[in-house]
Predict the structure.
Amino acid sequence: MKPVLATPLIALMLVACKPMTPKDKTSLDPGKPSVVAAKKQESSSTSVTLVEFAVHIKGTLDERSKAANVMCDEMVNARYRVDLATITIEPPYPEELWLRFEVSSSESFENAPVVLRASVKRDNDVLDRFGTVLDRDARVRPYDHSMELMSHIDGAPASVLIYTQAEALIMPEETDPASIDIESAQAPPARTGHIMGNPIKIVFVGREEPQPVEPATK
């Protein structure tokens, strides 16, 4: 009986001693980056698409101008960002109306800082300008800018529409943010993005929109 039992035992030993088939070398080769590492490296690079998606300019009513007759309603989208701010003003109209612009980002820019230069406009007229540098602290350190609007309004319009346009310039990698001059900073078109802030509509209750003047008939 012993010789009969020895045959399967020897077969099992041979199977156990058989060398294992090597796995895919791409997953074990230390000299080759993994797919995860490649994706991480790709996501860490700063691109125009990333900047335009991450950076948001919120325009709204400044706290100092809030009053019983000055109210602000914000329309928020699915990303919890403001799409439209409507400021309603009832008589007596204030002599000053302060607006606040907050620059925030869902991304930090550790490798290449981003210079943001923004213009506050009414139609095509520039009313104010501001700028900032977005760096590794961009996610946790928003930038605020305030401006007074009434001094820029002539006449007595029933409503005013304000909006913000900005250019975002991606600086070379390893640039020291403290060394950047916001006004003179430059970047090629391939590294320059464009960002629009939400419009701010100011409505003066009790005023009427001017009626268009009809041409005189001969």
Observations:
- The domain at 50-204 is CATH 2.60.40 (Immunoglobulin-like).
- Confidence is low (pLDDT under 50) at residues 12-17, 21-28, 32-43.
- The two ends are 128 Å apart (CA to CA).
- DSSP finds four helices and ten strands in the chain.
